[in-house]
């Protein structure tokens, strides 16, 4: 099968992530998209606000109504810092029958040259890049060894981020519809991201 890996901190998972996964699936003929929360994201200076268990629960709730979406706990189970080079190596060894593609938003496309062992990663997997407000998708600006490995998929610009959702919650503002209803219920029920 053709599998899209949607990796993220998902603190919390939001509608932008789901639309990105769906647009990548449709544009690139993916059979499934696996939503994989990072245990410790490699490049974020601050630890996630929600626990690994809470981020996992939100991802499970967010994808539960879509048969083509799956929550995938590989990096949470493994623990430690979630370097993609290790994850991709492990996935290819564990699932030789699948063809993997890595789905990322425009901010991560810009950041790709800084990923650990990016040269090795580009030999193992292709990326699907999606537009995101505030970031230019400029494949021509990427180093020559990365450029051919990044395919762009169209997506309506959605100015939604986990940071904004956490800020809204801290300020007592609504996040309804920025996250799915089951995720919204969970955030409210647990009092997540309140001041
Ligand atoms: N609105 C969006 N449109 C397109 N891609 C997105 C969007 N939000 C996140 N992504 C992509 O989803 C992946 C996971 O993102 P992440 O979990 O860090 O969410 P985030 O909203 O960027 O979080 P934060 O605001 O906490 O940094 C990344 O590849 C990111 O580029
Ligand atoms: O391996 C790396 O060096 C690396 C650097 C930055 C991001 N990533 C991965 O990219 C995905 C999106 O990251 P984030 O932090 O925006 O949620 C997530 O799966 C990260 O583990 C990976």
UniProtKB/TrEMBL annotation:
Belongs to the NadD family. This is Probable nicotinate-nucleotide adenylyltransferase. Keywords: ATP-binding, NAD, Nucleotide-binding, Nucleotidyltransferase, Pyridine nucleotide biosynthesis, Transferase. The lineage of its organism: Bacteria, Bacillati, Bacillota, Bacilli, Bacillales. It comes from Paenibacillus chitinolyticus. Residues 5-168 form the Cytidyltransferase-like domain. Signal peptide: none annotated. Pathway: Cofactor biosynthesis; NAD(+) biosynthesis; deamido-NAD(+) from nicotinate D-ribonucleotide: step 1/1. SUPFAM superfamilies: Nucleotidylyl transferase. It comes from the Bacteria. It catalyses: nicotinate beta-D-ribonucleotide + ATP + H(+) = deamido-NAD(+) + diphosphate. Transmembrane segments: none annotated. The gene is nadD. Its EC number is 2.7.7.18. One of its GO terms (molecular function) is ATP binding. Catalyzes the reversible adenylation of nicotinate mononucleotide (NaMN) to nicotinic acid adenine dinucleotide (NaAD). The keyword Ribosomal protein does not apply. GO terms for biological process: NAD+ biosynthetic process.
């Amino acid at each position: 099968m053709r599998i899209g890996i949607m990796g993220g901190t998902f603190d919390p998972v939001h509608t932008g992530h789901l639309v990105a996964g769906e647009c990548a699936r449709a544009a690139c003929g993916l059979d499934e998209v696996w939503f994989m929360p990072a245990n410790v994201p490699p490049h974020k200076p601050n630890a996630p606000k929600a626990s690994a268990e809470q981020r996992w629960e939100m991802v499970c709730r967010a994808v539960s109504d879509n048969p083509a979406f799956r929550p995938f706990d590989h990096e949470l189970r493994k623990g430690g810092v979630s370097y993609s080079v290790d994850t991709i190596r492990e996935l290819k060894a564990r699932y030789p029958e699948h063809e993997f593609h890595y789905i990322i938003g425009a901010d991560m496309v810009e950041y790709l040259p800084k990923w650990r062992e990016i040269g090795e990663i580009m030999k193992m997997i292709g990326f699907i890049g999606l537009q995101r407000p505030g970031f230019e998708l400029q494949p021509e600006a990427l180093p020559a060894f990365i450029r051919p490995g990044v395919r762009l998929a169209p997506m309506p610009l959605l100015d939604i981020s986990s940071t904004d959702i956490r800020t809204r919650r801290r300020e007592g503002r609504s996040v309804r519809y920025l996250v799915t209803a089951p995720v919204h219920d969970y955030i409210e029920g647990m009092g997540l991201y309140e001041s």
